[in-house]
Request: fold
Amino acid sequence: MTDIILLTLLFYFIQIPIPMIIGLTKGISISYYFSARDDAVKIPVLSERGIRATNNLRESLFIFIPLSILSIIFDIDITMAASLWLVVRAIYLALYYLGANLIRTIVWGISIICLIDMGIRIFKHAI
Reply:
């Protein structure tokens, strides 16, 4: 389970700079990113999608990480649900950048089901 947590954090840290990199290729100067960003610039649509996808992942991490740590503490195997969650989140990111709204929402729903499954397995053990 520890390896899935570490892969998830790696995925998160890889995902963070992608919107900035896209912005650099679309004409936003690097000096803007190193400034206080007081002046507004036109953020490319792909960068905005990446920012929203990253924020969405951050919200899910708030649930995923504690459940993963609890599974280690209580020695509960939730590896399959956690692995599926990570794969689905990677697919979600790609679909977000592609603008595939309907299928992206379905994939997001699958990630929520994975989190619910993880929680139920831990809850069953706690009773």
The chain has one domain: 2-16+44-126.
